[in-house]
């Protein structure tokens, strides 16, 4: 069907891959817990747009270019690792502020401009989009995974890639939706437990540092 050799196997593999935790899903959960589902869906939209760009680039041969150009791959991967580190530092600083309790109480007492300014600066869509795009391993993954299920004899391989990509986005959107409402539920549960929230934020920041280290050590092979 549409040049796809084994759709059922692809869907099983896709589900397993999407369920693996990564910086994109972790950031969406963080936004959901802090700012609710409406803002979290902006971050989810950034993830989906980023993945769409990566899939398009992969189908266009950018993955092959990264594999054959060690310098280009190094530039992209260190830029991605640096951005993840910057996000991690922000999360750790926020966790420390929550642990001390000063900024959290001040934010609850004050309504208006200061809080709104803080929310406006974060820009969840843009952050999630950048996290997705600055990941060369994701580009390589898309091309290496998709190509296994595309019939080389099919006359319109673009349709095959579009179909596989549509399934990937459907699975990703469903999974992110579950994470968003789970994050919102956890936020409501632990809203009054600032130190526990700080611990979770610190854990998320540490995980982002791990993602950054993993990406900086990645190779194109």
UniProtKB/TrEMBL annotation:
Pfam families: LysE. Keywords: Cell membrane, Membrane, Transmembrane, Transmembrane helix. The chain crosses the membrane at residues 12-33, 45-66, 78-99, 128-150, 170-190, 197-217. InterPro entries: LeuE-type. It is found in: Cell membrane. Signal peptide: none annotated. This is Leucine efflux protein LeuE. The gene is leuE.
